[in-house]
Amino acid sequence: MSNDVVAVDGARVKMTFGESTTLSGVSFLASKFDGILGMAFPAISVNRVTPYFYRLMEEKLVDDASFSFYLTATPGQAGSKLVLGGVNPDYVAAGSSFQYYPLIQENYWMIALDKVTLGSNTFSDLKAVVDTGTSVIVGPSNVVNALTDGIGKTPDCSKISTFPNLVFTIGGTEYSLTPDQYILKISAAGQTQCQLGVMALDTPMNLFILGDSFIKAYYTHFDVANNRVGFAKAK
To answer: Is residue 115 part of a domain?
Structure first.
């Protein structure tokens, strides 16, 4: 553990943080980032170190005890924003407004998920963690495999428009992703390949992770003060 000043766009606080002395695997060796800035709760912080946003609140450097993420629809496109202290209404689509959902517990940003639907397949009474650190949507293998049966992990790009919307129902409100939003187009060496942005992964809590494939469609407000998370259609 080390100590230093951490600054994000001028918001400077003294912090303790974990520093790697050796690297194993390819996570940091091959990635385009050099570290992780945790935005969840102290309950899951290693050694109970106070997370960055909580240090901002302690130092009264934010007027609103919340933050929000806006992600551009196109990978690599400039314009994605982390807003420290509230939301920016400029990132909300016309006619949309934030709907809020209480957290199940103060560890991850976890909320109740009424159901998830893709075509004729529906699974109910689930939980979901909202996580900007996960690039895709992740869910229990039995659910994801059944939902995506017939689409495949590398669907034919020419058939994207024929696939149904992926719908998450939260608190009675439907949050729909079009095939263009949950199927990723990856270009390399002059060729474009499609990859399903929904991954099967079994976790101890048997839950979904609503990662960037979801957040790029819905501007997300992490409300620390009121223990809730809100979504509005992204502009």
So the answer is: yes
